[in-house]
Amino acid sequence: MTFDPRFAAEVVDACAAVIVVLGVLLVATRSIGRSIWMVALQSAFVGLAALAVGLATGAGHLAFGGLLAIGAKGIVVPLVLGSILRRSSVRRERHMLLGPRTLLVAAVVIVFASAAAADGVTSGASVATSRVLPAAISQVLMGLLIVMTRRKALSLVVGLLVFENGITLTAFSLSYGMPLVVELGVLFDVMIVVVVAWVYARRMLDVFGSTSTDEMRSLRG
Amino acid sequence: MTELLVILVVGAPAVAGLATWFADARRAPWLALAGLGPAITAGIALAVMVFASGPLHAFDGLVAIDAFGAYMLVLVLVVAGIALAGSPDHLASEEHAGALRPHDTGRYYALLLWFVAGLAAVPLVDNLGIVWVGIEAATIVSALLVGFSRTPQAIEAAWKYLILGSIGIGFALLGTLLVYASSVGVMGETSDALNWTRLVEIAPRLDPAFVRLAFIFALTGYGTKAGLAPFHTWLPDAHSQAPSPISAMLSGGALAVSLYALARFHLVAVGNLGPAFSSTLLVVFGLLSLAVALPFIVAQGDLKRLLAYSSIEHLGLATLALGFGGQLALLGFTLHLACHGLVKSTAFLAAGRLVAERGSRRIGRLGGSLARSPTDGRALLVAALLLAGLPPSGIFVAELAILFGGFQAGWGLASAAAALVLALTLAGLLFHIVRVSVGPGRSRRHEGAHEIAYDSAHAAPRTAPRIAPSRRSAGRAILLATPLTLVVIAGLWTPSPIAAAFDQVVMVLGGGRG
Question: Taking a C-beta distance cutoff of 8 angstroms, is the pair B486, B342 a contact?
């Protein structure tokens, strides 16, 4: 099956736009449930962009990796995270380091800064992905911002996933992804991070009675 | 032949781990031995082949083992052997304290095996991407081991380790893919575009802007995993809260493997940018780690944290040596990492035992260990003296080599600063170890308010498992004495095959083909 490259380029650009918008919303939201499905959707769009380019260029490993990412990070991960959320009584980030409005401004600043930073980077990949690099950089930074400002275990995992989406997208925009073995390995690692986070979130619920990392301040010095 | 041995090194522990997960407490250690024994044997066989007849390649460019890789492989497997041998005692004391659940034993050994498999894969593969995958997989598996005891502190440490480790190593992935992007530009989209053997060859033709950025990201990422300051904050928590054999594996094995990955990036960066850029960064972060560890060692009150900060110090020194470069400093690096692996793993096993017997990790409450538990008390004393850098020991020789090598390579000021910090650290470490060995041991009545207050706040007062002092066991004495003796001997005499092997490692690190 071949795909019109120009159409693929449009699909990729649209995906990049959706990914950035979801990233901004993820940075600003307090609702943990909403952030779980938004990050799943974002991951699915990252996979979709890879799939489109894979089909257009005939790069089978890209298409395959994209499909796998949609399945793993778009479906399995939110189910796992959702199951923790149902056990936990905390559904919202009450005390973020910055308020939602400040965070929204920060996210917008990140979007423009990323565009400026990516300007002038000569990419090894074709024109079809030249607009992806700014989106990719912005998601790496937004992931870090989420991790820095949140306190609940689930939100930290969400931040980690946004960060990881940014890295995947960077890989994809600079060099059409990495060799398939590496992509599969990375995907595998992301899955086990989520599973281990699930294990520890359950233990936190057992031991501390919540998944808030505020409880965890005994180790110093 | 090479293929078979490689499969044994990684596959045997991985598969044995599956069986061990479901095994009962009696069979699990034997299954673990059945997985790790062949792996260690095969790993040593591979190393002998490499040192005797040059680098090995297998699986169509997926596997490449040079002298540095062979050295790292043996180091990891030997430390894993020490950790495995120390595990039955540790689990027995946990069981005695009632802290072990029915399936815990099998799972502990299974996770330990997978941890080893992940780490052992790293020095074997020729692909920087798979190097990353191996280190990250080992990190995540070991996060489950760090929180194994399920105390609130252990969960906190494991959580920090998981999140900070994943973020940190995410940067290493960025670094890896920047290298890939620049090498695809040179070589085209081939499957060996991430092979470090190829990358070192084509390094001069890579885009310097990409390589510079890639090295910075790799330094952040693998530096986090190697415990370099200022990315080290997870390390004292994780290494002190983990079960002691796991602490041994983390400090002796995992840190060294992370430094291995960083060294591969360093070699590519040197090939591309010349030695100045990445060497300077390594020296700066090495010195910073030494300096940051110092006050925490001097003012430390917790025995296992003391050992963890000592790991930061020693890995800082190794990083410094890597940055210095030059024959002498690199020889010091090689000797130092190996000796540190042996001594630190032994130190953690002994410390873990003392802590379990006395029910406290506070240095002030562990006094008189030499009289109370002769075997472990003596082992900890000797290990601490070696870690402090007192002669005769391999560590002492290695430190001298690194410092002189630094002067030789024109890093006089950095060497002098490192020497000063090492001397101060020595004083701090000696002070604490003398207190633990012959200091006054306090009775339970006087134990501090901190732990009690903490225990009453949470429902699980399992911070203080107290078990009967150990009977003298010849097996345990041999387990603890052997690595320490080897390191002492290394300070006096190096057998010529080992010396030749180290020379080959230095050749690779110096940018030659080993």
Answer: yes
**B196 near A CB under 8 A:** no
CB contact under 8 A, B132 and A176: no
Strand partners, A152: A212
Domain presence at residue B397: yes
State residue A129's pLDDT score. Answer: 58
Is B457 contained in some domain?
no
For residue B469, give how far its alpha carbon lies from the nearest alpha carbon of chain A (Å): 28
Residue A187 CB contacts under 8 Å (≥ 6 apart), including other chains? A65, A68, A69, A72, A73
Tokens 């673990």, located at residue: B32
Where is average pLDDT lowest: B118-132, B186-200, B214-228, B391-405?
B186-200
Question: Which residues have C-beta within 8 Å of that of residue B86, sequence separation ≥ 6?
Answer: B244, B245, B248, B345, B349, B352, B479
Specify if B410 maps to a domain. yes
Closest chain A C-alpha to B453 CA, distance in angstroms: 12
Q: What H or E segment, with its residue span, contains residue B409?
A: none
* pLDDT at position B446: 44
Which has the closest alpha carbon to B389: B320, B317, B284?
Answer: B317
Question: What is the enclosing helix (H) or strand (E) of A58?
Answer: none
What pTM was estimated for this model as a whole? 0.92
Instruction: Give the span between the Cα atoms of B79 and B85, in whole angstroms.
Output: 10
The one-character DSSP state at A75 is I
In a domain, B174, yes or no: no
With CB atoms and an 8 Å threshold, state whether B174 touches A175.
no
**Which amino acid is present at B376?**
D
What pLDDT digit, counting tens, does each position of A209-218 carry? Answer: 877 777 777 7
**In the numeric block, which tokens belong to residue B254?**
């995992």
- The H or E element that residue B313 is part of is helix B303-324
Q: How far apart are the first and last CA of chain B?
A: 21
Point out which residues pair with A212 in neighbouring strands: A152
The residues spanned by each domain of chain A are 5-215
Q: Are B255 and B246 in contact (CB under 8 A)?
A: no
Is the pLDDT at B261 greater than 90, yes or no? yes
Domain total in chain B = 1
Interface predicted TM-score of the whole assembly (ipTM), two decimals: 0.89
> Distance (Å, rounded) from C-alpha B508 to C-alpha B514?
5
pLDDT at B17 over 70: yes
Chain B positions in Cβ-Cβ contact with residue A172 (cut-off 8 Å): none
Calculate ∠ Cα B332-B333-B334, nearest 5°: 90
| Residue B148 three-state SS | coil
Question: Is the backbone of residue B227 left (phi > 0), alpha (psi -120 to 50) or beta?
Answer: left
Instruction: Estimate the share of chain A in helix, then strand, then coil, as percent rounded to the nearest 5.
Output: 80, 0, 20
CB B113 within 8 A of CB B245: no
Q: Residues in chain A, how many?
A: 221
What is the C-alpha to C-alpha distance for residues B495 and B150, in angstroms, rounded to an integer?
A: 45
Looking at the DSSP bridge assignments, the partners of residue B451 are: none
Q: Which residues in chain A are contacts of B296 at CB distance < 8 A? A: 221
Whether residue A208 and residue B152 make contact (CB cut-off 8 A), yes or no, is yes
Residue type, B310: S
Confidence label for A9 from pLDDT (cuts 50, 70 and 90): confident
CB B513: neighbour CB atoms within 10 A? 12
Distance CA A46, CA A40 (A): 10
B362 beta partners: B302
Do A50 and A66 contact (CB within 8 A), yes or no? yes
Name the more confident of A18 and A133. Answer: A18
What are the residues facing A92 on neighbouring strands? A31
Contact B140 A192 (CB under 8 A): yes
User: Do residues B363 and B435 lie in contact, with contact meaning Cβ atoms separated by under 8 Å?
Assistant: yes
A179/B127 touch (CB, cutoff 8 Å), yes or no: yes
Burial of residue A71 (CB within 10 Å: 0-12, 13-18, 19+) is: middle
Tell me the one-letter amino acid at B494: T
